[in-house]
Specification:
single chain, about 80 residues, Acyl-CoA Binding Protein
Length: about 80
């Protein structure tokens, strides 16, 4: 199956997991999704120093800078498969 198709399937499956992943894993899923769909981060960091959620999301995505979209999509697929087990 083509990577794009596997990725789209994994995105759908990530919303149907039997138990909610930890915040750390959710952040991993978010950053891999963003890197896989948009590539390197293209936004400014959150201006509000107390906006911890968006700061964490920004940092997680920023940490993936340089990773190819294909690698990010494959890692996302692998992570969702692991979470399904």
């Amino acid at each position: 199956m083509e990577l794009q198709t596997l990725f789209e399937k994994a995105v759908k499956e990530s919303k149907e997991l039997s138990s909610k992943p930890s915040n750390e894993v959710l952040l991993q899923l978010y950053s891999l999704y963003k890197q896989g769909t948009e590539g390197d981060i293209n936004t400014e960091p959150p201006a509000n120093p107390f906006d911890f959620v968006n700061k964490a999301k920004y940092q997680a995505w920023s940490d993936l800078k340089g990773k190819t979209k294909e690698d990010a999509m494959q890692e996302y697929v692998n992570l969702v498969e692991k979470l399904k087990d």
